[in-house]
């Protein structure tokens, strides 16, 4: 049964996401400002070509389907605007190299930087340096450790992913107080993994359940398969599994198939095309997945353009781009998979 707290969360999250999405689109009507005002303007002309701006973009290596989608979506979004000159640094998982890339953007005096840091804490100082140089930084996905390091932070809702997954599982097996719930996390040292697990535990607690078995992988296919094999050996009976990541989910499902287990339902995470096609088929233990938007860097490109051109979100009364935007984490199941499948990424 869906609890009151979980219901409120899902409604408020959906409303918040709607506001953000609406803000990124061009409104049919808008507020007006005094022509003498030299500050940002909130108008319906955001899509019109303005002064050309140079945006530096740096992200981790695309060694993961979701990260590949992040990079390609950002590049595709920039290509839509003739007034964006996008400079793309080579993807890397080396924080020191990424720091040098950002320093290069600073030396080139770009107009804005969109940065998905390989490690938020490690990139905080150089991002702060860019901000102090007058270059607005758009922080994507992995947060810096200081609010002074970014003009705008745009995030997926990691805690919300856990809540959504836990709420779905409560709806499916919550009438069994002895249900055995398993969790296959990503990289435990990352704050995003910790947030997902916390949200999951909180949602399960609402219906009187808890995680009985938990393992952590490394967001890879091989890692997912290895830890799931261990999990299945240790737990002869499971009622539901939440796997944090659909890319590592390929390995998770391989281990499940190898073990010949199908007594449980499974919920994925991120929203890959592969996962959605399995959900659509109805021939898998995978019944649902929770969206973690791969549009974050593309949204970051669009926001960087607005900030650099001194514009605002046209559907908000506020005349400046907000400093923090958190995207929604909806559940995709057989009832709504066709809605989300066209924009899903390939693992």
List the helices and strands and how they pair.
Elements: H1 4-24, E1 53-58, H2 65-79, E2 84-88, H3 95-107, E3 112-115, H4 120-132, E4 137-140, E5 152-155, H5 158-173, E6 181-185, H6 191-206, E7 211-216, H7 221-234, E8 240-243, H8 246-259, E9 265-270, H9 273-281, E10 286-291, H10 296-308, E11 324-326, E12 331-332, H11 337-340
Parallel strand pairs: 1-2, 1-3, 3-4, 4-5, 5-11, 6-7, 6-8, 8-9, 9-10
Antiparallel strand pairs: 10-12
Helix pairs in contact: 1-5, 2-10, 3-4, 5-6, 7-8
Name the features.
347 residues; alpha/beta; Rossmann fold; six-stranded mixed sheet; elongated; disordered N terminus; SBP_2_dom
Question: What Rg is obtained from the alpha carbons, in whole angstroms?
Answer: 21 Å
Q: What would you say the CATH architecture of the largest domain is?
A: 3-Layer(aba) Sandwich
Termini distance? 32 Å
**CATH superfamily caption of the largest domain:** Response regulator
The domain tally reads 2
Could you tell me the number of beta strands? 12
Percentage of helical residues? 40-55%
Mean pLDDT: 89
Strand order of the largest sheet: 2-1-3-4-5-11
Shape: elongated
CATH class of the largest domain: Alpha Beta
SSE string, helices as H and strands as E: HEHEHEHEEHEHEHEHEHEHEEH
Q: Biggest sheet, in brief?
A: 6 strands, parallel
- CATH-defined fold name of the largest domain: Rossmann fold
Q: Unreliable segments (pLDDT under 50, ≥5 consecutive)?
A: 1-38
Strand percent estimate: 15-25%
Structural class: alpha/beta
